[in-house]
Amino acid sequence: MFASKPLFYVAGRILIALAAVFSTSGIYATEKLNVILIMADDSAVDNYSCYGSDFFSSPRIDSLAATGARFNYCYSEPVCTSSRVKIMTGRDGVRNYVNFGILYKGEITFGNMLKDAGYATAVAGKWQLHAEPNGSLPEDCGFDSFCLWNYPGTGSQRYWNPSLNQNGKILEATEKDYGPDIVSDFLVDFIEENQDRPFFAYYPMILVHNPFPETPDSQPISKKEAESYPKGLKNYRDMVLYADKLVGKLVDTLDRLGIREKTVIIYTADNGTNRSLTYPFNGAHRKGEKAYATEGGSHVPLVVNCPSVIPENIVCNDMVDFSDVLPTLAELTGAALPAVPLDGRSFWPQCKGEEGNPRQWITQYYYPKFVPAAEKHGQGVRGRELIWAQNQHFKLYRDGTLYAVSDRYEVDPIKPGDGTPFAEKTRGMLQSAIDAMPGTGEMLDPEAGP
Question: Which domain holds residue 402?
């Protein structure tokens, strides 16, 4: 009976019991997790050593994958605007894609959601969402502070002597200043300033988009090496490694501040590798497929790490779509979901090694600025709307064309009745998914843009 024990003993036992209930691997459930969401620009899944590349090196991202969760089937959209709108809003492009360079003002983003949940918020890197009509600026999207390229008033330079806008002011820079360093320094400052409260840092990287200049760490190569691959590819490989270094810079900042274990780091990319590049991959050569609706255009990395919550060596083969990121952030932070139709579902359980609610397929809507991307399967407005559904094995376009996902460049369609029983069963499942989608872009402006 409690009455037979001293009061301080009873109180102590109650506190211990409560700690056991509310503790999650050493972090109280009532303490919100910080989030850093990093998205490289133009970098397919096969540009990383943790995904099997023997040409590119990404040691810091590899470490995050080894001590956290690596997803093998994450899909962005094939080009930047579509991906950025989708990941920020949790909504498929068939609902809210307007035109290239536009995130329609009034859309609710993960920045709005987390700011409303009490988070300090910042965005740093590349913006490119403010075009007319009615594009958005960071303050529209819930961000307290920003340091951005491709923002009103900035010029074309993003790497050396960069043109960046930080909180409404164009930064002075010289030929010795490297844009990705400035942006990552801004994020380090943001983390330091907000280390005692929950924060959300969205880092749509400037790297590794073309042009492909040398990085601060680039070294000369031998004549023999130069004959093996062109300078652009050599510099691109250096840029991937430098992007990896900047990821490590943020991880080291968290370690130094003692907040690493309560910070979730998510690493992904907005679309496939630049079309001008052909790169080695395990004895073969692959061509960059950015802007094409092919496997190489939208299959991207996804690594999630938080030492106190996510076990080591989680490898997940569930499908993940960019619309899933917003509801995942809502679940891991306790934020309320926006009161609008959403298309994503949380993959936070899978990050922790749990079953969760895995997708059987994903659906995609894409209106390409790059016209050749729509030549084979475009329909609808200007013959440019691409709609498809896919799982880990097969991909079906709205026009009825089915491909094996392993057919990277989509050269051998599977005619109805010619596939295996499994292929034909999957065709029917994917067709049902397509039939449930709207037939055309609900916000697409057919009169504007290219």
Answer: 363-435
